[in-house]
Amino acid sequence: MNRIISYILMLFCLTSVQAQTYNNYLAGGLTPGFLLAHRSDIKNLAAHNYGIELSYEEEADHTSWGKFYSKPTVGFGLLYYNLGQKQTGHGLGGLVTLKFNLFQIGRTDVKFRMGAGLALLSERFDVYQNRRNQAIGSNLNGSMQFAMLFHHSFNESNHYLNYGIGISHYSNAAFRVPNLGYNIPAAFLRYGIGLKGRPVENEGELREASKWNIEAAMIYAKKQRNFANPVDFYNLGIQLRGLNNVNPIKAWRVGIDAMLDKTYKYANDPTYPLDSIGFIDKLELGVAGGFQWKVDKVDIFGELGAYVYKPAKLKNALYQRMGVRYNLGDRIKLSGALKFHRGVADYFEMGLGYRI
């Protein structure tokens, strides 16, 4: 009899585990906004516009990394933008998104949503056909989106409503001039339809990281300068970072940057032969610190840096960096990051790193 009872209890436990599910959603969104003229050169492009998004989302609090966030949701969305004028045209792109709770007000969650991806813009600067658009120099651009959202769940139907404010950004990270970019503050209205729940698969626990890790990376970047006669520049450098791990998915970052950038000499004398620029005239050194968050195999990071040496006063004394890093195993890292100065892109850097 005891054996029969044991079998029944085991069967019940197994059934309970298999019955655990996580929610996924099909969501639609509307983002009426305004293309902001953040520079006098593009005041003529300012206009009301709107975006439409269709996305698929999954709850991730059951994952090994998601347990460290508050109600995280990951997703992929297709975003269309009518940019409001003939000179700016339309945009179509894809976004990978992450959304999680910041705090709760009564029964309402306040969430932060961020996304990044690529977009095709129908109109760009052309000296003959579209010279009034001095914000975008290429059809292919990177896109980013940030929003603060109020979240209401309808438990009886497993649907939700989001509304709030945010900003979308399009630019090519100085790959091609002009690159003032589009900044679009907007209102966000989203409705998610709950789909059939999917069974939870046990991913195990994240391995506890060492208190400190040291990483080194080789960096490559390309940018373009001179609006009237574009010139390409190719930068090479190294980065060293010490990571102080707070827990398996969060870490402080601190380290040094060394980069070779010929635009310092070029800005002072455009006729100077680029191949003859000396090492010290293209070397920039900086110290940087910031924070990173892990989302599955991807790290998202932000940094603030300060130059300790640069050949000229071409750039602001402080610089910022936002990027992502993909972990190929425990040691090899592939990264991409935008380096900028007070909102103006310097270049998009690609890196190959190794954890020492």
What does the model show?
The protein has helices spanning 2-19, 263-268, and strands spanning 21-22, 24-35, 47-59, 73-82, 90-105, 108-121, 140-154, 159-171, 182-194, 198-199, 212-225, 231-247, 250-260, 283-295, 298-309, 318-328, 332-341, 344-355. It is mostly beta strands and 356 residues long. It folds into two domains: 24-199, Porin (Beta Barrel), CATH 2.40.160; 212-355, Porin (Beta Barrel), CATH 2.40.160. The strands form three sheets. An eight-stranded antiparallel beta barrel has the order 2-3-4-5-6-7-8-9. The protein has an eight-stranded antiparallel beta barrel with strand order 11-12-13-14-15-16-17-18. It has a two-stranded antiparallel ribbon with strand order 1-10. Strand 4 and strand 5 (90-105) form a beta hairpin. It is flat. Residues 4-19 have low confidence and may be disordered.
Shape: flat
The strands making up the biggest β-sheet line up spatially as: 2-3-4-5-6-7-8-9
Mean model confidence by pLDDT: 90
Structural class: mainly beta
Helix fraction by DSSP (H/I, runs of at least 4): under 10%
- What is the CATH first-level class name of the largest domain? Mainly Beta
How many helices?
2
The rounded Rg comes to 24 Å
Taking the sheet with the most strands, its summary is: 8 strands, antiparallel, barrel
How many domain regions?
2
CATH architecture of the largest domain: Beta Barrel
Order of helices and strands: HEEEEEEEEEEEEEHEEEEE
**Overall strand count:** 18
